[in-house]
Design brief:
By secondary structure, this protein is an alpha/beta fold. It is built from nine helices and 14 strands. The strands form two sheets. The protein has an eight-stranded mixed β-sheet with strand order 8-9-10-7-11-12-13-14, with helices on one face. Strands 3-2-1-4-5-6 form a six-stranded parallel β-sheet, with helices on both faces.
């Protein structure tokens, strides 16, 4: 038993495109750094409702133009694609705004508040003939490709169970948006999307969804536990919480062995191949090259798709995003969690 080599290309090899950043928050800073360090692309503009915030971001990342409105950003003729980094509650509207301006769009995960909003964006993108994709960066990483190859080849036997957890101490003293239902806060869309998307990557569509959890006084989930089953009978046992730091590990268990991902499974994880006797038979340390960031892989894949004239990326198809959104919709239904305006 041996781990396969990744098929994910060096992100520097992708063609360069010109990005506009919509919403200069913390995750947008990670995005801009990944563009600059790990790809041939450039961030050429940033837009915010506050011109001061846009100017600070532009100065920090050597971005040529700062716009004091989202409308001005998407109208910028030098921008090839817009990265939407606003709160979840605004993703649909901001994606549609960019699409109406004829811009390709990469929307930060979770793609929208619910599957209906995601479908609306995808319908508009198809009508406009414009590329749109979800920025689920983990699914573009080299180790995720290794996991897919191992499962697909039958190296660990028939798939039995997927385990994954994601917990960070983000409530009540973390970002305010996570506490607010009107901003689609809670653990699920921010943290739970990682284990749910990982399970979808490994076992495909969920045909059965069960969930339990704890809601805050304002009605968003502080913690959620999810059990999924696919049509072949494989199960996923998943959890997320914004109350505490959890191991953030994952395991993919088959009848002949298992894969273990640690340090966190959704990022630069170590990957171990373990046989049926609990012996580690192969392993690959985590980490990225010095000239690559985790986000660089999704940025490069988007640039390839845009340059090729594709309506969606091969890694994060529209159907993939919709499956994950539908699963999270069902989790929220079972928890009794709704967002204002849905």
């Amino acid at each position: 038993m041996k781990l396969p080599e990744t098929r994910v290309p060096d992100p520097h090899e992708a063609p360069g495109i010109r990005w506009g950043v919509l919403g200069p928050g913390g995750i947008a800073r990670s995005f801009a750094d990944a563009v600059a360090v790990g790809t041939a692309s450039r961030v050429v503009a940033v837009g915010s409702r506050s011109l001061d915030r846009a100017q600070v971001f532009a100065a920090d990342f050597d971005v040529p133009r700062a716009h004091g409105s989202y409308e001005d950003l998407v109208a910028d003729p030098e921008v090839d694609a817009v990265y939407v980094a606003s709160p979840h509650s605004e993703h649909r509207d901001h994606a549609l705004l960019a699409l109406q301006a004829g811009k390709a769009v990469l929307v930060e995960k979770a793609f929208a508040r619910n599957a209906a909003e995601a479908a609306e964006v995808f319908t508009a993108a198809r009508a406009a003939g414009v590329l749109v994709s979800e920025a689920m960066w983990s699914r573009h990483l080299p180790q995720y490709d290794v996991v897919a190859q191992v499962v697909g080849s039958g190296l660990i036997g028939e798939l039995v169970t997927v385990f994954a957890d994601h917990g960070q101490p983000l409530f009540p003293d973390g970002p305010e948006r996570l506490a607010r239902p009107e901003l689609a806060g809670g653990a699920l869309l921010d943290l739970g999307v990682y284990p749910i998307s990982f399970a979808d990557h490994v076992m495909g569509p969920a045909t059965e969804v069960m969930a339990s959890g704890t809601l805050t006084d304002l009605g968003v989930d502080a913690q959620s536990n999810v059990l999924l089953r696919n049509d072949a009978g494989a199960q996923a046992v998943l959890s997320c919480t914004m109350l505490a730091a959890t191991p953030c590990t994952a395991a993919v268990v088959g009848t002949r062995g298992r894969l273990e991902l640690s340090g966190a499974f959704y990022g630069a994880a170590d990957v171990r191949l373990v046989d049926g006797e609990h012996r580690v038979v192969d392993e690959r340390p985590g980490g990225f090259p010095d000239d690559v960031r985790g986000f660089s892989y999704e940025i490069a894949e988007f640039a390839r798709a845009l340059t090729a004239g594709e309506p969606e990326t091969a890694v994060m198809t529209h159907a993939t995003t919709l499956r994950v959104m539908e699963t999270m919709d069902e989790v929220r239904r079972r928890l009794g969690m709704t967002y204002p305006g849905e």
